[in-house]
Each structure stands twice: as structure tokens, then as C-alpha cells.
Batch of 2 targets.
Target 1
Amino acid sequence: MRASEFVVQLRENLVIALDVIRNHKMRSFLTLLGVIIGVMSIIGVQSLIEGFQKSIHQQMEQLGANVFQVQKFPVNIGHDERDKYRNRKDITWEHAKAIEKYCTAVERVGPEAWHFEIIVKYRDRKTSPMNVMAGGTPEFFANNSYFIDGGRAFSEVDVQQKADVAVIGKDIIDALFPFEDPLGKFILADGRRYQVIGTLEEMGSRFGNSEDNKVVIPLSTFLKYYGSYRSLNITVQATSVDMMETAQEQVIGVLRAVRKVPPGEDNDFEIWTSNSLIKSFNDITRAVRIGALVIVSFSLLVAGIGIMNIMLVSIRERTREIGVRMAIGAKRGDIRMQFLIEAIFLSVIGGLFGILIGVGLGQLIALISPVPAAIPVFTILLGFVVCVAVGVIFGVVPAVKASKMDPITALRYE
Amino acid sequence: MMIELKEINKDYHLGLETVHALRGVDLNIDNNEYVAIMGPSGSGKSTLMNLLGCLDTPSSGLYMLNGSDVSDMDDNALAEIRNREIGFVFQNFNLLPRASALHNVELPLIYNGTPSSKRRDLAEEALTKVGLKDRMHHRPNELSGGQRQRVAVARALVNNPSIILADEPTGNLDTRTGDEIMDLFETLHDNGNTIILVTHEEYIAEHSDRIIRLRDGRVERDEAV
């Protein structure tokens, strides 16, 4: 078939396909519904995930892109795996001091320790047990992007004196001091008495958890109460984002020396940045995406069967038409192409509606939930391609069936 | 010679039984002849028409149409021959119900890739010939039976075929409208078209110049009117 001939017939076939849809509105709509729902779910799910991912990335960058952490255990491990690393030496305050002393690409070093699920009380008020106690040095606040809202952060002097002072987050202020100024008041955190010397700026939530539930005390005080035989985390701020890698190399070198790791052996500590967290988060979302895609493909399978069914019905109804077309010169290939194009057209129309509704749904969810909107361009293209594929795959059988009709029998068909 | 049939046999196999629909038919039809094919049902009339219309091929024998041997062409070649050489007119019109008269007439041109502007001109010209230029945007259900058959005739004419093959063209029409259609064929014949008419109505056959009568798959009589 020449190209010009193909164009002539393609136009004709599209006109016919549109006409068929117009003349069987209900039937076409029901058939399309399968494709619409399938594509809509793909787009909707993907744009949600993409939006979620975007929000995570934003939040991670707030963490400070030039800050990394040193800790004993890898970040994403289960409890069973933890045993493997249990024999590692603890990370100590001395290590932090060594980093500070020898690493030139490092701006600020903050050793810290954490204790979870504490209750904070003030007079007859008390918080939920979901609050968190952190022990740190003055560097803690900058390295963790915690900002002082009122009062002051604790100082080197407080750390030296193991002072019972605390800087508290917004959740705790809301729970304990609805009508009072918390500064200077004495609270009971995890059963011990601290004087509130500062408040933290509201941070909102990261990963769906409130970040405003912190009680921050000097690290020395923390170790006094919770025991000093523990591994610390060290937050390290590089001099700039560009110096991140250099700073990490320096820190690794210093720590290996201080911890006496023999050359050739693996590090006996972990370094992680929000980038590595982003990576592991991306791994998870990729898995979720693929899972969603697999589930949605089943709905497209059903949609495809719907299209095949309606095409078979349509071909039966239009047997005479097929006979006439053959009699006046349509080749078998022409007939096959006509019905294939019709099936693809049907599927693509459904796909376009599905894309529109899916994108709209994603935006709507973004509007009423904290997840920001994202239009997954790649997925939209994918959805479109998938629709064409569904049309081809499920249109082939009916189209071939139509093309194999005997013109004489078809012309006599009542 | 426009049509030359030599020793044409057509057998159908129904289970174990073989039906000999045509047994050794020899037939010549000249350019610009107006021929009627008659015969009772089972005489092989429809089989002959399907062969002449290149909808089917003979089991044996030779069929020369306008200089080319169409006896054992493949499906695609036959489709091209039908498109170029044959104009069909059916008893029940066989128009596409939702397409306008114009579009129905354009249909054969679509299958040989005629560009749309030229297609429209040719289709309008054919509709003018059958006197339906003013109705060309109507759909079949907005036309009378006679008008529908005229659209079908225009469709048969539009590719300027070697033969117009009409199968009981008045079978679904009342006598008066049927006569109009027969007049139209008369005019086409006068303008140089070759017409083959399949009918079982004696008075319709009498419009032609030559009547070929079939019985039991053979030509029983072949005489001028």
C-alpha cells in the first residue's frame, strides 16, 4: 500500500471509528470505562507517589544538604541484622573531638544521643508518651536545623556544668504551657527536673511524624542520667555542599585512625547523608510503583477483554458492511486495518479520558492532603502507549476475524 | 471481448457430497453489451454472478476479464480487479446506513487511494449521472428505495468499471420505481457501459439485448431479445 493510500484510508477509518462511537454512545462508554479506570488508576497512583517523593526530597533538603551523620549502625536495618554490628566499638565524644580537631573541611561537629518515648510533665499537665529526649552540644541546633524561637540554646558552660536545662519543642509547649510563658519554668521530663531556657521554632512534620516533640538537654547531662556507656551519633557539617565528599573522606580517615581499624578492613561505623536516605526512600517508592503498575495492568487486561468483546459484537453486526466493502474493492488487509484502528481508537479515547481524570484526581488529592501535586509526565506517556498496545493486542483477533470473512457469505448475512 | 468464459466448472463440497454448481459454461460477452442472466433457483445463476463479479474463482476453466486471466488470482488481486473492473448493484442496495450518499459513492475510490478532492468530484459526477446531485448529503434512511438504488448505481459507476453487475436490482422496489431504475440502466447502456443483469423476472430481463438462460449449471439457451 502506498503512503498516500494509507493516509486516505486512515482518515476514512478514523471517521468510521468516531461515527461508531457516536452511534453507540452507551455501549462505547461502558467499554471505555474499563480503559478509563485502568489508566486513571495508573496516573493517579503514580502522581501521588511522585508528589510524595517530591515532598520527601524537599524535607530532606531542609535537613541540611551539607550535613552528614556518623553512627554505629547502618540506617535501614532490621533488628536481626543489628546483631551483626553489635560488636562494633561505640562511637564516643572523643571521636567527635578528634574530628573537630583534624578535619579541615568540617565546619561544626555535634555529638548527640537520643532517648525515645518520654512523658513530660508540668504541674498537673502531662504530655503523651511520644516525646523524644535529645542530648547534644551547642552545635546540635545548627547541625539538625533546629532554630531557637525564644530564650536561648544551652552553651558550652551548660555542657561543662552538666546543667539541668532544656530547650523544648512546640508540641510540648502546647501541651504544658497553654496559657503561660514556658521560659524559666521547671518541667519533669522522663521523671527528672529541668529548667526551660529556650523554645524551638515550629518545624511541622517530617515523614509524617511531628518534629516538634523534642526536649533537648546538654549531652553531658544526658549521659549523667542515662549512662555514658552508649554509642553516640555525630552530626558533621561540612564547610559547604561542595566539600561534602572531602569532609566525609577526612572523617573516615580520622575515625579509622582513632578507632584503629586495620588497613584493608571495612569501616566499623556508618556514614550517611540525607542523600543516602533519599536513595533508600527512592528504592522503596520504586518498588511501590512497580507493584501498583502490576495491579493496574490487571484492570487494563479486563479493559482489553471488554474492547475485544465489543469489537466482536460490532463485527458481527457489520458483517454486511464488510461484505460490501470487500465487493467494491477492500482487500483483506484494508478490513483488518479498519477494525484494528477502530479498536485502537476506542482504547486511546478511553486512555485520554483516563489521563485527564487521573491527573485531575492527583491534583485534587494534593489539594486536600499535604502531599504536593505532581504530574507524572513519563507515566502519562506510558499510559498512552499502553492504550495503543491494548488496542492492538485485543483488536487483532476481531480484526483478523473480520478480514477472513467470505465476501459472498458476508453480503448475504441478515 | 470484454468477458470470455471457457469450460467453467464450479464445485462445492458439502460434507461428503459434491455439488456441481456450474458444469462447463462457455460464454462470451462483448463490450457495451446489455445481457440478462436468468434461471430458476439452483440453476447456478448466483454462482455465475459471483464468478463474473470476481467474488469467487472457478474450480476449473478459464475466465478472461478485459484481457486478464482472473481464474486463479489471489484475494488481493481479485479485490483490485473488483475495485477497478466491476460495479456491483445489489437487490438490497447495500449502502452504508450512516454515511451520506456522497460518501457511499466515494467508497470504492477510498480503496484505490484517490485523494479526497478528486474523490469528491468523481462522486458528484456519478451522482449527477443518476440524477441525485441535489440529494448527495442525505443519508440512505432519508432517501426513497428508488433513490437508494440510484446511489448504489452511482457507486457502481464511480470507478468507471468495465462491467456493471446488477443482481435483482428491482427486487426490492415497486414496479414504477423498478421501471425508473431499468430506464437508468438503459441510459447507461446507451452511454457505452457493459451491463450484466441477473434476474428471474421475465419482464425485467426483456429490457436487455440478450438473455442467457441457465439450468442445472449449464447454459440452456443464449439468444438475443
Target 2
Amino acid sequence: MSSSSSSSSLTCTKLTAWTLTAVFLQILGLSLFVFGFFPIKPTLSGVSGPESYQPPKCDSRQDHIHKTMLPSDQLRSLYKEISRIPSSFDRLILMVVDGLPAEFVLGKDDQPPLKARMEAMPYTQSLLSDGTAIGYHAKAAPPTVTMPRLKAMVSGAIGGFLDVAFNFNTQALLDDNLLGQLNSIGWKMVIHGDETWIKLFPGMFTRHDGVSSFFVKDTVEVDHNVSRHIEAELMDSNWDLLILHYLGLDHVGHIGGRNSVLMTPKLKEMDEVIKRIHLTISDDHHGQTLLVVVSDHGMTDSGNHGGSSYEETDSLALFIGLGYKAPDYASATCNAVFQVDIAATLALLFGVPIPKNNVGVVIAETFNSLTEDHQLRALELNSWQLLRLLRAQLPGLLCGASSCNEFNYARNLDISEFKGSVEEYLYCIFLKAASLHDYWRSMKGQSVRSNSSNDFHDTVAAYNKFLRTSSEWLSRTATNKPLGLLAFGVATMLISSVMFLSIQFWLNKEVHIRQRQYLPVSDKYSYNWHLDDSFVLLMILFLVFSMGSSSMVEEEQYTLHYMTCTFFLIFLRKSCQSLHGKQSPILFNSNKGRQFNYFRTFSIVLVLIFGRILRGWHQGGVNWVHFPDISKWLEKAGPHTTKSLQMVSGLLVIILSFFSLYMLRIKRMFLLVVQISLLVSGILVLLHIMSYQEQTLTGSSNSSNLVAQTIYTLLIITVMVVVLGSPWVMPVSSSTTYSSAEGPSVTSFLVDQDTWCPFLGLRASLYLIGWTYAVCWCLLQLLLQKPTNAMPTLLLLLQVLASMFYFSIGNPRHKQWVEVAALYFLGLAGHFSLGNTNTLATIDVAGAFIGISSHSTLFSGILMFIITYASPLLCLLSLTIYISMKDMNYLLASQNALFGHILQMMIGIPCVVPLSLNSVILTAFTIILLLMRNHLFVWSVFSPKYLYVCAATVSVYIGLSIVAATVTYTCVVFLFRQNMLNSTGNSSIIRT
Amino acid sequence: MPTTKKKKTTNQASTVGNISVSVSDAFLLHFLSGLGLAVSFWIASNIYSINLISDPIQTLRLLCIIQIPISILLHSIFRHNPKQCSYWKAVVRGVVGLPVGAILMAFGAVVLGAPVGIQFMMKTLYWSFLMSAFTFVPAVCVYGSSWMDWQRLFAYTKPIGVLDYIICIPAHGTLIGAWLGAWPMPLDWERPWQEWPICVSYGAIVGYMVGMVVSMVFVLVLGRGQSHSKRE
């Protein structure tokens, strides 16, 4: 290295250290922000006890009166005595139908449900129309996935957004909840169905038969496993709570959507179950049994869930046999409550304290069969519980002797009109309700009927006002954020982002200096700012600004495709500059260059066309998702078309891999081994597609698992062998046994014939490794992705190849970082063409269980990540091919270049560019999320997108660390071998 | 860079051989093109009482009918090498180049995400003809199939001389305008003008007008510079 450049250069170690520091800072800032932003809900510890039947005091310490643990039967009678509400039911059957939208049973917008749906559930509809059953649209809070929703139902608390991340890692529910309360009064509980319950409440059930919700493609067995117990359980008398959790309907939705052909039979089956239970319990000799049918969440038209659209949050709560008859069909069906209200309602109905962190409000109609006194008592108990929860967040709530005079004049004062703090307002509306209640109680004895009824309604209205207001306030403050932590996190991320950008700037400068040194005529490559460079910046700017608008986030696939395509159109324009050889390269001036220019232009056109096909494959997004696209057409065309497309793509991937490996004309034996193993795994994948994909509807069989597992093993072994072995097998450059005739032919286009490339072996082995990565990744995707996604996988690979071809042959026309950025954006755009969107609903859960015989959260999580981030990771992994194909003669021209410098030049830019682009996007979106924290769509649009951005960051880390490790390892091996060779060569010379 | 230098000299020589384009010519050309646009919009709204939003196909057709002849006939006057190439030859060149440009424009639009389908075919067709009239036809009429000039204008965007500016800047303005005009399309505002190709056409027309104004400014500056140099 000459002194001039080394003075300005940053060494390899320095670069690594800086990059790692920036990465570390980014992770730190990100985790700080995530934990600060996503609410860890403020909870009261402990369990509600007898004190919940007494009004709350100013000081929370005065509340704890009974600290002695009573035995369950005594506790039961104590509750019965002090609650002063007679419990009209002895037993509860909680039937959970996973994913059943309330619309199917109750209709939408005050309209009865579709005729087909009504006919599918004749018994339930008859119950509704004669008033025996009352149904509610129980609005679920996002994220609408099973575990958080179950928690909300039994604890009445709204979980944090991050619960979704733990959905696949169910843990025991430690907060106060309904089941715990029932357990403490000695109830015996039985669960049949989703094993999430068993994980949430370990050891609480006397009998259980759990089914896993993870074999999503099975719609029959999961429900049969529940229903087969019903007969025996209904006869039995040794339970008080029976939970039946049916998963089949959710699975039907995941497979075929709302209007799946399997839906009507499944609804009929559910109706049959309800009929059986209701007929048995109505002439029951075990005591009064209440049947509650609930669903944890709804589903979108395509059958997915997770977001916060009406279709997904529209869950059902159906109370059958309350003893109170709804007057008509409309009043039995057109009711809207919140899902959290179920917990409070059931707790009061069954005479246990309401769970401590409940924010739900008791559903008033369910108490209509009780006397007015008891109804008011229920409201009072609910109010006391909410007051206790409020007191935890507003410490002065019950202590201030605030004057509530205003309330005596204005009857319906809104919170916005009230002059005073929130706590005063809440306390005042509570006091108003309480005083009305006292008044009503005092008047009761004097039996003035007409007045009493009026007073009663006033009291109920006042209580409801307090309950609703405080419930809303509590749900809102569940999202209170520690601003200091957030600011610190954002600042850290900003710093790391700036670090990445400056590293990239240094690297570019360094590369430029090197190129000027080794390429004498490189004015073409000058440090000028070109259109393509500025477009990258423009693109980032546009992307960042577009993420500030919720509909742009929802429709991000358009933005990314548009930008990436424009980017490649700019490349097309640039490649037109060199057509006709007018500006043909001077350095590698050959006839080949001229004809390559047409190929280069053509390859860009191919990238563009493939990109358009990919765009048309999945409509994606939220607003225009119903528009026709290729995948919908394929689904309509039937499985045969899809399957043949899958076969074609599989074959083409294999052929492509053969062709590309054939280009590498050295070490035929080793290549043959690699080819054979790729072929075998390819054939296995095709076999799996051929014979097992249909079986998935009836559950995964052992043999299909075996094949999938064999494929996994084979692919891993192939990759390991190639990565570890090929650097040792490929010829070292200075080897004399290696004749120059077959030498410089890594591929006919890879290396210019005239140029003797000293690092040929290194590049050949990197080329081989890169191809193995790409092909193995594609084969894996062909196995895992939805059947309609096979062709897009192939097209993505072809896109990457075509752009690689464009970048690597001929004279370098773009700065290296622009090329890497183009590949990175290709990956981002491809992410959406595999059917992903920025809502959590489109994550392909079904594919994550291929080849997994026993339920394993870890493995299915990994598979899910692999499926979702197929395209970005493909592009990142193929950076290995890019490094190998990139013409680096300028830096290898000096044989004695330092190892560190070579490494830095090889992996520096390909690694730093995606990192810095990603860090810009991540940081910008973090700031946007912070600004949008009060936006209406923050939980439905921005937060899911943020999770995607975080996962994309992880994918960048993973992909780049694989690339960097591979290249470093290969370089080290080659260096070692060259040194060995030199020393033996020297010794042999000495000997002779 | 010897090659470019050489090219520059040849180009300068060729501009000498051109029909000289004065500032007033350029102004007239742009004025007539703008007038054509104004007239076609006026006819659309007052005679047929249609507009781009309500009847995109008819309006685009009307725009094409008026704008294509204007573009071809006007630009053919300023053809390159007038001695070897008669006026009518240039017109024929423009007529032949029109569909070629339209195909290129349609390709670009579809690749960038324009919807494909029978119900969109006519819209895309008329839109691409209009785009071709704004961008491709002027260059074809003036330069024919001279690849070097095309490359200079569109691949390098290095216009030399008044004529180049007149062709190059409105064409780029049209392209950029159309590109920007597509941005509101995916949004969920549910406005009728978000349909393909309405807002893109608006963007293209606005871009074209802005391009003409900018090119006039350039021509004025350039003309003053040239007169200065002549005086020297």
C-alpha cells in the first residue's frame, strides 16, 4: 500500500470494529425502543379477594383486611354471603370456537346473517329467535391471535402488543384471572381442545385432552378429539367448568378463507355440538348450567387474522340459558360489547371477585333475571374493582375531597367539558352513581313504585357511564409510554445509522482511491455523482416519506415495486449509453465487450419483465386486495395447474443450478458430488410436491414428514460440505500443476480471457458456495412456500441472476454500492411478491409445520421466518455470488496486497450497504412510529409494519453474517494454502 | 475523454448544417404545442362536454388527434440535415416513429405497474400514443434514426444547441411528470382520478408544459450566450 492511500484508509480491523459497534448500538437502541413503545401493561399484582366486596379506600393498604387463606369451600360460602348476589348457576360450559366471526351467527349492521349461514346453524338460530340465547358482537382488541385473546377473556385485561410475539411460546398466565378465582373456590375444571389453555393454566384442570393448534391443515381430527368427550362429560357430575375449544373452524379459514367449501359443514358441526349440550343441560339434574359460546377472534375474507379490521375483531359471545328471555330476535343479536367484558360478567354471575386487572364492564342484560337490587349490586362491585385499578394509576383518586357540584346541575357532563383533572372527573361520576344508588336503596323501603323504577334506570345509567368512561380511560393508558427511554433508544439508533453511513462513505472513498491506483484509465469510474447514485438517495427519501402515511404503508408493495423498477429503468438508460460500443471500455477492449452490451441491456429488460410478473402475482395490500391477480387465478384454475407450475419451477431451478455449475470448469469431481446432492434434494422436493401436498388437508403423515426432514438434512449437509470443503479443493492460484489453458475459465463471461487472475481459485470457490446457497435456498422455498408461490421463487432467482449478470460483465459502470443497493431493493420488492403484506395476517403459518413431527416452537418459528423473509435473504445470500463474479482485478493486480485489504475490498461494501440502507429505514420508521403514536391506526398499521421492519433487520444481520463468515473463511483458507504452497515450493527449490 | 470530444465537435458541425433555430422559432413551436393542448381541452369540455376524469378514453383520443399532427408537422420543419431529408420524409418518419414510441411507452408503463387487461387496453393505447407524441415523435422527426443523437438526448441527457433543448427538456418533463403523477394511484382516497391512466396523463401534460417553459428559459439563456459569442 502506498502511503498516500494508507493514511486515509481505514484498516480491516478498524472497519470491522466500527461496523460491529454500530450494529451493537442499533440492537441496543432497537430493544430499548421496542420495550418502551410496546406497552407492558400496568398491572396490579395479587389476586382479588374478599376485600373486593367492600368499597375501596383512599389508601390501598387499608384494603387488605383478610389475609388468611381460607379453604375453598369456606371461601365459596364467604363470597356468596358478602357478594349479596344469589348465583343462579352452578356450572359453566365455555365453548370456544376458534376464529368464528360473530357475523356468521348474528349478522352484520343489524341485518340477520346470510341465509346460507343461518341454515348452517339451525339450532343456534332457533335459540336466538326464541330469546333463549343472547348474542353479542364482542369486539376483540388487536392483535387478534389466540393466546392474547384467551388471556383477555379470562382476565379482562388488555394485553400488550408484544403478546403476539409470544403467541407461539405460551406461558402460564400469572395475572389474576377468572379461572384462578374459580379454582380458589374449589371448582373442578375440565378442558378439551386447544392446548394453549393447558399451558396458560398448568395444573388447574382435573382432566384435559389438549390438541395442538399447530397442524393447521388438519380440520377434522382437531374437532373430533374434542367432541368425542362431550357425551361422557355431560353425563358426569364431577366438574364445574367445562371448556371446549374447537380449532377446526380457524383451520378451515386458514386453508380456504371465509367462503371455503368446508365452512358450512364445520358450522353445522358446531351447531350440532351446541344442540347436544343445550338439550342435555336444559333438563339437567346436576344443577343450573350456563352455556357460553365465545370465539377468540374473527377472520378476514381470506381466513387470516391478527390485525384489527372489523372482520378480525368481530368475535362472538353467546349466552345460552340465562333464564331471561330476549324480547325479540333483534335484541338477541344486535348487541355490541367488548371481549374483555366477558371476564367481569362471568365472575359476577358465578359469585367470584372480578379479576384485579379487569378493564371490562359487566354486560347488564345477563343479570336481567335478577332483582333490581342485585343488578345494581353487580354494577357497584364492578365499579369498585375498576376504582381500585384506577387508584393504582391515579394515586389521589379517592383521597381528594373534590367538589362535584357541577354534576348536580349538568346531568351529562362530558370529560372534555369538565374543568378539572381526569381523576376528579372519574371520581365525580362515580360519586354520582353511588349517591343515586344510596338514594335508590333508601327509597326502596318506602315502596313508591313508579319513582323507584325511574331512579333505578338513572342509577344504572350513571353506573354505566362511570364504568364505560373508566374502562376506556384504562384501555387507553395501557399504551402510556416512557418518553425518556424512547428518546434514548431513538438517539442510539440515530447514532448507529450515522455511523453506518460514514463507514460507507469512507469505504467508497477507499475503493475509489484503489481503483484510481490500479486502473490507469478509470475516468469512466470517476467519483462524480451520477443519476443512479442520486436515485438511490431519492428512493430512500421517498420510501421514508411514504411510510408516514398509513395507506402508503398498507400499499407498500406498489411503492417498492415502482421505485425498484424505476431504478432498473435508470440502469437500462445507462446501459443504452454503451450500446453501439461508442463508449466501449478501453481497458478490456475486446469484441466480446460489444456484444455483451446487448446482453446486458437484455438482462435488464428481463429483470423488469420478471418484476412486473412478480408484481402481478399477488395483489397484496389492504385496499385493493380483492383485485384479480395470478395467484387467485391459479387457485381458481385448480390444483393441477398449480402443481405443474410447481414442477416446472422446481425443474428449472435444478437445471439452472446444473448450468451454472457447469460453467465452473474446474474440479469436475467435486462439482459432480455437489450436483448430485442438489439433484437428489431437488427430486425429493418434487416428490414431496407430487405426492404429499394434497394429504395436508387430512393432517401430515409420517412419510411426508420423513421426506421433508430428509430434504432439510440433505440441504444442510450439501451447504456445509460445499462451504467447508470447496476452499480446500479449489486450486490455489500460484499452483503450477494448474495449466493456464483450463485456468482462466471460471465461466466464459466471468473473467476476461486476457487477464490472468491470481485469485481464480478463491473466486471459483466463492462462486460455487454462492450458487449452492442460492439453489439450496430456492429448493427449500419450493418445499415450504404456498403452492402458488413456486413460480415467484424461480422468478426471484432469475431476477437476481439477471441483475448479477448485468453487474458483473463488461466494464464496471456503476459504483459498487449502487449495485449492492439494487440487489437489496430487489429483495425488498420480492418480499411483497411472495404474498407478504404489512399486516400480520399474511404470515404463512401453514408452511411452518412441514416436516416437523412434534410441536416445537423454535423450529416452526425458524421455518416461519424462512418463509416470510425468503426474498430478502435470497438476495443477501446471493451477494456471495456477486462478490465472486465482481471483477476485482484492480485490487488483485498487486500480488502482495495485504490479506486484510483484500477482505475489506471484497466484503466491505456488500456488507455495509445493506446495513446502512436498513438502518436508515429502521431509524426513520422508528421516528415515524413515535410521531404516530396517537394515530388512529397505530396498532393496526404502523405497529405491525414496525415488527416487519425489525424482523427485516434481523434478516439483514443473519444474511450478512453468513456472507461475511463465508468469505472470510474462504479467504483465510486460501491464504493458508498459499503460504503452505510457497513454503514447500521454497524448500523444494532449496533441496534441488 | 477523446471520444466525447470528437462527438461534440461533430455535433457542433452538424448544428451548423441544420435549419437554424432562432429563439422566436422555439417560442412559436412551444406556443403552438401549448395552444394545441389548450384547444383540445377546450373542445373536450365545451363541445363534447367530456373530461379526462369522466371519459378518459374519449378525451385521450381527442388529445391524440389534435396533438399528434401538431407534434409531427411542427417538428418536421426543424429536421436534421434538411438537404438530404425532405419535409415529407420527416413527416413519414414521425408517423412511423409514433407507434414505436407508443410501444416503448406502453412497455415502460406496464413494467412500472400499469394494469394489464382488456378493459385497460384502449386507455393504455391512447395514453401511450399521447406520450409518444410528447417525447418520441419530436426526436424522430428531427433526428430520424440517428442513434448517436438519440443517445445524446436520452441516454446522456446532454442537449447541445437550441434544437436539442426544445426536444429534450419537454420530453424529460413529460416522463418525470408522468412518473410523479402515478404516485397517488395506490392510495385509498377513492377519487375517480386515481384510476389508470388519468392522474398519469395529468402528470405527463403538466410535466410537458413545465418542460416547455423550462426549455424556453434555457433557449433564451443560450440564445443570449450565442449572440454574445458571435459578437466576440
